[in-house]
Structures are given as structure tokens and as C-alpha cells.
């Protein structure tokens, strides 16, 4: 079995556009200033394609997914 | 500077009994009562045993000694020193060593004190570490605005140069003294010509740091312990402290104690004994702040807790960089915390949204609580905003502020009630106790 990918946010790059929360509301919420709050870092298999789209949509490349090191 | 800060002169005192049992880093100071110049250092310790630091990383005597000693970092995070050394030694090519003497915690003076009384122990440690990881340059990072300290180290380096003691070159730097400029990534960024603000992303410093070379960053005190382990070995090192957390550590004790200052104590020493070592409390205590401004308020009932990571973890606390402040019963912990939070908010490096916006919001809420001017949502908003700080910055600055705020709400829960329902207590108007610098953004990052 492959291990779940995890979401990571580059907090310095992130400008709080909030697109990620729109595309991936199951995992990303926004705080009162529009900056993302992760419900969990692990991306369940059923959300992988949504996560990929959220990563692609982030205008400043602040969002990415990583395969955790073994 | 705030007058309640533990000044070096307050710390420059000898005890009536001479060398306290177990003093190691400060043994020379307790014996002579004066800073050790190179001559005196060499008489006491001899030259740094660099032969210990030669050989392959699997067989090098120094690495094995540091590992067997169980030495951990004294800058706050408490990471095993041998693991950091190995990580850099394992990289190919030249490496760089950075001595972190920034000591950004306002209630801490231990690195400043150690460098004042035993500079060559720290420098020996840096030279040995450089030899161990294959570095030919050591950068010593001091906070700007301490010309006397800079001059003293400059002299110490000159003495070593004339004595042809070291093969590696030792370079002195004075960096902007902000709360987050002591982060290891801030040092690396500054040494590379940038601003002394934390970096969030990989590559990590041990992979690619100063001049894109593998970089080892160690706290000044850690290196001084390493210099002694190299000379006397792990068994000697383990003769004091606990079996899981051996050795001694420097602590800075201040607040409502008779003789504030820097002490060297065995790990596992109860907090109450640390206070006694600083002359004992001057009045009944309400709580202590352990671990600096990124630390935790502990109620006075926990003063029997030993100073170890293990024992303190059960209370949600950690030794941190060893700063302990005694808060008297007649002081207001909420007002003190509000002042600290305002300073921490001003010292955000303003790179990450959750830190740049979240910290000032929490500080403002806390100020309203301390002043007894609550709105109906204050407490729930404060809890929510505090809960959203950890793990959402490129560095751990917001995590530390959240830890402090949450511990204040716990430890001073009765006062929170009082402030919410009946306004601020008279204690809120006592003169401030903690040495909080002005809550203004740093003048310079470069
Ligand atoms: S889309 Fe990118 S920039 Fe916008 S909030 Fe999400 S991570 Fe931050
Ligand atoms: S978390 Fe705060 S202090 Fe740390 S890098 Fe981000 S903005 Fe700077």
C-alpha cells in the first residue's frame, strides 16, 4: 500500500487567497483573516485529485503535497 | 534596559562556600572570581584535544564520546548534540560551524555570562565541532549593541591567534538583536548577506546553509559542554544529572528572588532549589515562568518538579534555555503576560499571515483581559485565536506565544474570572516585574 500524501503550506509564500479552501473544503478551512487552517495534513485517497487541483490553483505556489519519508 | 533584568553584575558574585559542588562550566569562575583569559584557561584545561575530533564519523572518538555522554542542546530545543554533529559530518565536502550566542530570551543571561567568564571553553567547543564536521570556518554570532562583549571576544580571538592555537578561522559577527533573530535559519540567512529573519522551507541548514555548505549551528553553552566532554569523557559527564538527562546546565534566575543571576545546576535539580540558589524568594510566590517568553507559567505548587524535560513535559513545560522568573503572589500574572505578548507580537518577522495577524490579535485580547475591559466574546475568542497559532508559521515564534498565553489562562484561571466579572485587580497596577523590552518592531533586520 502506498502511504497517504500530506499537504504542506509554505507560510511565508502564502498570501491568503483562500482558493485552496474553495477547492478542498474537506481539508482546508480559513481563519478570520483568510489564511488556511488544515483539518489534517494527510490526504485520503478519495480526495487526491481535489488536492492536486488545489495545489495547481494556488497562485503563489504555496501549497504542495508531499509523500512522507519512510 | 529594564532595571529588573538580571544584570551581569548581579550574576558576578561568588558564593560564600567557594566552588559549588558540581560546577563545571563555571568552576574556574567560582575558583578565581574573574574571567579566564587564555593563559588561565590553558593552565586549567590545556589546549583543545583536536585529535579526538579526527577520523571517520563512525569511529571518531569525539562523536562517540558526545553520543555516550547524552549531551543535548542548551539553546532551547534540547536536541541531541551528537545527532546534529553526525548529520553535518555525513554530508560531502566542507562544512561551516555557527556559534549561536544571540540569547534572544530577555530573561536569559546565561550565554552572555558564560562568554564573559569562560570564553575559551565556548571557543574550544566550536573548534572541536569544526574539526569533527570538516569545517574550516567558525562564525560566532553575537547580539548587536553589546560593545563590551564584542571587544572581549575580539581580544580572546586575538590571543588564540597569537598563540597559534587553532587551524580553523574564527569570525566574529554582531547581528540585529530581535526575538526571532536567534533562530538558526535567521543566522544562516544573515551570514549569507540577507536579513536575520527565519526561513521556512527546505533545504535545511545542515544540508545547505552558509555559503550553500552543510552548516552546524550550536548554542554557545552546548559547545562549552562539548569541550569538557572531549577532555574528560562521557563517564565523567554522566556523574551528575539524571541517567536520562545527564550533566549540568546554566539557568538564569530572576524576579522576586534575593540574588538574581546565572547558576550552574545538575539537571534534575528541583525548581525550588534553583530559587534558593538565587537567594530564595523575597516574598510568597504565586507562580514561576519557566523557559522564557516562549515558556510556561507554572503554579507555585509545582516548585518541587525536577528540571528535566521528562518531568516538565507532564506539566506541558520544558527547560527551554533555562530562564526562571519568580512571580510574587501580589503580582498580576495576566498583566505580565499581556506585556510579553505585546512584545512578541511586535517582534513577529511579519512573513507569515497567521503570525503577522494572529499574534497582535491575541496580544490585544490579552491586554483587554488584563485591563479588565472584556466584551462578552473575549474569552472564547482568545481561546480560539490562541489555538490557531501553533504550527502555522514558518518558525516556532507563534507556537511559543501560544504556549505562554494558554499557560497564563490555566495558571491564573481565578484571576481570569475576576478580571472578566469584576475588572482588574489592584495587583495589576504593581510595577512590572518581567524584563520586557518595548513592544516596538525591531529597528533593523540586517
Ligand atoms: S491558495 Fe495558496 S496563497 Fe491562497 S490561501 Fe491557499 S495556500 Fe495560501
Ligand atoms: S512565524 Fe512569525 S516570526 Fe516566524 S517566520 Fe513566520 S512571520 Fe516570522
TrEMBL record, chain A:
Organism: Streptomyces pseudovenezuelae
InterPro entries: Fe-S_cluster_ET
UniProt keyword annotation of Nucleotide-binding present: no
Organism superkingdom: Bacteria
Gene Ontology terms for molecular function: 3 iron, 4 sulfur cluster binding; metal ion binding
Tagged with keyword Lipid metabolism: no
Cofactor: [3Fe-4S] cluster
Record protein name field: Ferredoxin
Entry keyword set: 3Fe-4S, Electron transport, Iron, Iron-sulfur, Metal-binding, Transport
Automatic annotation (TrEMBL), chain B:
PANTHER family in the cross-refs: NADH DEHYDROGENASE [UBIQUINONE] FLAVOPROTEIN 1, MITOCHONDRIAL (PTHR11780:SF10), NADH-UBIQUINONE OXIDOREDUCTASE FLAVOPROTEIN 1 NDUFV1 (PTHR11780)
SMART domains reported in the protein's UniProt record: NADH_4Fe-4S (SM00928)
Lineage: Bacteria, Bacillati, Actinomycetota, Actinomycetes, Kitasatosporales
Region: Disordered, residue numbers: 423-446
Family to which the UniProt record says this protein belongs: Belongs to the complex I 51 kDa subunit family.
Keywords associated with the record: 4Fe-4S, Flavoprotein, FMN, Iron, Iron-sulfur, Metal-binding
Name by which UniProt lists this protein: NADH-ubiquinone oxidoreductase 51kDa subunit iron-sulphur binding domain-containing protein
InterPro entries, A to Z: ComplexI_51kDa_subunit, Nuo51_FMN-bd, Nuo51_FMN-bd_sf, Nuop51_4Fe4S-bd, Nuop51_4Fe4S-bd_sf, Soluble_ligand-bd
Organism: Streptomyces pseudovenezuelae
Biased composition (Pro residues): 432-446
Biological process according to GO: cellular respiration
Cofactor: [4Fe-4S] cluster; FMN
Gene Ontology terms for molecular function: 4 iron, 4 sulfur cluster binding; metal ion binding; NADH dehydrogenase activity
Domain NADH-ubiquinone oxidoreductase 51kDa subunit iron-sulphur binding, residue spans: 334-379
Gene3D superfamilies, A to Z: 3.10.20.600, NADH-ubiquinone oxidoreductase 51kDa subunit, NADH-ubiquinone oxidoreductase 51kDa subunit, iron-sulphur binding domain
Amino acid at each position: 500500500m502506498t502511504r497517504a500524501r500530506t499537504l504542506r503550506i509554505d507560510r511565508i509564500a502564502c498570501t491568503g487567497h483562500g482558493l485552496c479552501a474553495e477547492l478542498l473544503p474537506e481539508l482546508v478551512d480559513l481563519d478570520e483573516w483568510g489564511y488556511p487552517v488544515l483539518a489534517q495534513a494527510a490526504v485520503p485517497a478519495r480526495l487526491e485529485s481535489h488536492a492536486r487541483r488545489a495545489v495547481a490553483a494556488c497562485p503563489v505556489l504555496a501549497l504542495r503535497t508531499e509523500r512522507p519519508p519512510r | 534596559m529594564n532595571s529588573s533584568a538580571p544584570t551581569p553584575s548581579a550574576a558576578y558574585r561568588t558564593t560564600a562556600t567557594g566552588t559549588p559542588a558540581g560546577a563545571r562550566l563555571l568552576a574556574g569562575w567560582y575558583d578565581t572570581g574573574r574571567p579566564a583569559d587564555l593563559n588561565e584557561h590553558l593552565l586549567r584545561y590545556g589546549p583543545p584535544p583536536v585529535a579526538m575530533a579526527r577520523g571517520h564519523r563512525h569511529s571518531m572518538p569525539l562523536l562517540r564520546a558526545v553520543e555516550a555522554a547524552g549531551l543535548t542542546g542548551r539553546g532551547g530545543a534540547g536536541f541531541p548534540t551528537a545527532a546534529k554533529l553526525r548529520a553535518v559530518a555525513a554530508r560531502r565536502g566542507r562544512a561551516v560551524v555557527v556559534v549561536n550566542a544571540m540569547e534572544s530570551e530577555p530573561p536569559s543571561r546565561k550565554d552572555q555570562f558564560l562568554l564573559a567568564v569562560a570564553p575559551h571553553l565556548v571557543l574550544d567547543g566550536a573548534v572541536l565541532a569544526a574539526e569533527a564536521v570538516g569545517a574550516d570556518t567558525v562564525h560566532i554570532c553575537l547580539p548587536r549593541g553589546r560593545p563590551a562583549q564584542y571587544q572581549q571576544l575580539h581580544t580572546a580571538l586575538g590571543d588564540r591567534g597569537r598563540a597559534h592555537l587553532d587551524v580553523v578561522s574564527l569570525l566574529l559577527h554582531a547581528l540585529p538583536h530581535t526575538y526571532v533573530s536567534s533562530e538558526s535559519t535567521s543566522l544562516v540567512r544573515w551570514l549569507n548577506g540577507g536579513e536575520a529573519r527565519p526561513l521556512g522551507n527546505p533545504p535545511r541548514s545542515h544540508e545547505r546553509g552558509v555559503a550553500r555548505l552543510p552548516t552546524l549551528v550550536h548554542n554557545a553553552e552546548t559547545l562549552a559542554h562539548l569541550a569538557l566532554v572531549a577532555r574528560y569523557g562521557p563517564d565523567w559527564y554522566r556523574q551528575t544529572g539524571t541517567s536520562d538527562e545527564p550533566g549540568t546546565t546554566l539557568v538564569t534566575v530572576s524576579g522576586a528572588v534575593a540574588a538574581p543571576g546565572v547558576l550552574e545546576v545538575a539537571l534534575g535539580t528541583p525548581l525550588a532549589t534553583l530559587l534558593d540558589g538565587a537567594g530564595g524568594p523575597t516574598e510568597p510566590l504565586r507562580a514561576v515562568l519557566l523557559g522564557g517568553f516562549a515558556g510556561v507559567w507554572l503554579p507555585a505548587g509545582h516548585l518541587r518538579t525536577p528540571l528535566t524535560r521528562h518531568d516538565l513535559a507532564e506539566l506541558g513545560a520544558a527547560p527551554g534555555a533555562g530562564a526562571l522568573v519568580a512571580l510574587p503572589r501580589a503580582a498580576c500574572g495576566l498583566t505580565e503576560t499581556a506585556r510579553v505578548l505585546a512584545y512578541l507580537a511586535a517582534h513577529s518577522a511579519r512573513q507569515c499571515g497567521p503570525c503577522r495577524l494572529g499574534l497582535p490579535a491575541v496580544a490585544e485580547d490579552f491586554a483587554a483581559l488584563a485591563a479588565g475591559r472584556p466584551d462578552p466574546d473575549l474569552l472564547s475568542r482568545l481561546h480560539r485565536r490562541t489555538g490557531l497559532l501553533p504550527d502555522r508559521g514558518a518558525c516556532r515564534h507563534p507556537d511559543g506565544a501560544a504556549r505562554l498565553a494558554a499557560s497564563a489562562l490555566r495558571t491564573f484561571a481565578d484571576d481570569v474570572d475576576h478580571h472578566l466579572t469584576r475588572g482588574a485587580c489592584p495587583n495589576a497596577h504593581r510595577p512590572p516585574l518581567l524584563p520586557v523590552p518595548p513592544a516596538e518592531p525591531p529597528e533593523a533586520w540586517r
